[in-house]
């Protein structure tokens, strides 16, 4: 068992409400990285076909992969929040108080 896994287990025992947001963040981060890599790989040859030199095509591919990775990771995190509900305990308490 890695040190990271032991730390996560300790946190899960002490504060179980912290685990789900962290898992959503990790999932969103990994998804964003993979989508950024794929976006860059796909964008570079497309830009080269338009007659742009290699340096500018690389810059365009890096910019597209950065923007694409960011938006995909944000979308993934928001979908996780929608599925599992809000992660803010104070927000949940306010909603319960408003219903009364």
> Which spans of ≥5 residues are poorly predicted at pLDDT below 50?
none
Query: Radius of gyration from the CA trace?
Result: 20 Å
Order of helices and strands: HHHH
Report the strand count: 0
CA distance, first residue to last residue: 46 Å
Count of helical stretches: 4
**Class inferred from helices and paired strands:** mainly alpha
* Biggest sheet overview: none
Q: Helix fraction?
A: over 70%
Mean pLDDT: 85
Overall body shape: elongated
Into which percentage range does the β-strand content fall?
under 5%
Task: State the main characteristics.
0% strand, single chain, elongated, 100 residues
Textual characterization of the structure:
The mean pLDDT is 85. By secondary structure, the chain is an all-alpha fold. 85% of the residues lie in helices and 0% in strands. It has helices spanning 3-14, 19-49, 54-84, 89-99. The N and C termini lie far apart (46 Å).
Short description:
The protein is about 85% helix and about 0% strand. The chain is an all-alpha fold and about 100 residues long. The longest helix is centred in the middle third of the chain and has 31 residues, at about 20-50.
């Amino acid at each position: 068992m890695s040190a990271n896994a032991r730390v996560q287990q300790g946190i899960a025992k002490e504060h179980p409400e912290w685990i789900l947001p962290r898992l959503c963040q990790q999932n969103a981060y990994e998804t964003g990285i993979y989508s950024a890599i794929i976006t860059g790989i796909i964008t570079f040859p497309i830009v080269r076909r338009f007659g742009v030199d290699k340096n500018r095509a690389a810059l365009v591919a890096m910019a597209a992969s950065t923007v694409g990775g960011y938006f995909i990771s944000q979308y993934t995190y928001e979908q996780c929040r929608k599925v599992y509900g809000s992660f803010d305990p104070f927000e949940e308490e306010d909603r319960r108080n408003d219903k009364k």
